Amino acid sequence: MTPGDLQEVAQAFGNAALRAKTAGFDGVQILAAHGFFLSQLLCPRYNSRTDAYGGPIENRARLLLEVLSSIRKQVGRNYPVLVKLNGQDLVENGLTLEDSLKVGAMLEEQGIDAIEVSGGLLNVAGLMDKKTDSEEDISAFRKEAEAFKKTLRVPIILVGGIRSLQLAQKLIDEGGADYISMSRPFICEPDLIKRWKAGDSRKADCISCNQCVEQIKQGLGLQCVPLEPEPAATFFPEHLERIPAGPPHLPGTIYQIATGLEQWESGFYPVLKIQVVRDEKIIASGPSIPLSSDDPDNLLQAITTLIEKHRQR
Ligand SMILES: Cc1cc2nc3c(=O)[nH]c(=O)nc-3n(C[C@H](O)[C@H](O)[C@H](O)COP(=O)(O)O)c2cc1C
Ligand code: SF4
């Protein structure tokens, strides 16, 4: 892109912000994170320009500052203009926290109203892969947000994996951010804030499965269609016998008699289990019958003989 092309981009951002203001939006946010265009310019891995827009961070941030200036010219000083910025790119030769803090300082100097701190690049796996097992760990960019808080005066917004009012409150109380931002929880529960305000402070229902992202990738629109979490296997069959199940089961239904190991809280135990199988799926499972640990194979053998006798009758 020529410097003229870049000027066109800055102008287009300004025009877009004015359209948003005219349409009644409360504010705009410049997206300079996650490997989108402005983020690529900030990132040495992608920006190999040798002109005024490449090289030191002051140059790599030049277009972002020009975008802000173009927006300000069109929407005025009092209209909220925020930026979403990577605290760091988390890739080799990416934007570092040190450089990102410099970008933050330049944006503050030029009158940005708040900085939302995120991280990572969309074309590099893992950006949104973290699941909700340990919410504390999932607030992935808290260290970066803290660094911004320490360095700048402008309000800092933290985003990424925050799912509970308690953690949100803790992050604010500990001084790591001024505001909390969430995305997927509102796709799942658009009225989440209303629910929390009404006193029901249970964690957001969103399980961060990213199926909503898959939906938009396939052009199916934005909707929450969570993946059913796979129940963890607790029974590991070693020997199986299968016999057709009679009525009231549907034709094709099978009884599966299995011995194997079952995991209970404190370890693995030999058990016998009778399960009902249709279309290769287990549709019902009887209780586990504990076996004495020395003889599961003989017991199955006895059952197999009984079945054979039953078949021959
Ligand atoms: C459906 C969907 C679309 C998104 N689109 C963008 C996008 O275009 N640009 C961007 O920087 N982040 C995008 N994000 C990322 C979110 O803005 C947010 O940073 C991320 O989901 C982490 O926050 P969360 O854990 O609260 O969802 C998107 C997220 C979702 C779920
Ligand atoms: S599809 Fe998954 S990640 Fe997306 S909103 Fe629903 S539960 Fe959350």
Chain-wise SSE layout:
Blueprint: H1 3-22, E1 28-32, H2 37-42, H3 57-60, H4 62-75, E2 81-86, H5 97-109, E3 114-118, H6 135-138, H7 142-151, E4 156-159, H8 165-173, E5 179-181, H9 184-188, H10 192-197, H11 211-217, E6 235-244, E7 254-264, E8 267-278, E9 281-285, E10 289-290, H12 296-312
Parallel strand pairs: 1-2, 2-3, 3-4, 4-5
Antiparallel strand pairs: 6-7, 7-8, 8-9, 8-10
Helix pairs in contact: 1-4, 5-7
The chain binds flavin mononucleotide and iron/sulfur cluster.
Residues 184, 187-188, 206-212, 224-226 line the site of iron/sulfur cluster.
Written description of the protein model:
This protein has 313 residues and is an alpha/beta fold. It folds into 2 domains: 180 residues, TIM Barrel, CATH 3.20.20.70; 78 residues, no CATH class. Helix content is 37%, strand content 20%. It has 12 helices and 10 strands. The radius of gyration is 29 Å and the shape is elongated. The N and C termini lie far apart (84 Å). The model has no long low-confidence stretch (mean pLDDT 88). The site of iron/sulfur cluster (SF4) has 13 residues, from helix 9 and helix 11.
Keywords:
313 residues; alpha/beta; TIM Barrel; five-stranded parallel β-sheet; 10 strands; binds flavin mononucleotide
In short:
With 313 residues, this protein is an alpha/beta fold. The chain is 37% helix and 20% strand. The protein folds into two domains: 3-182, Alpha-Beta Barrel (TIM Barrel), CATH 3.20.20.70; 235-312, no CATH class.
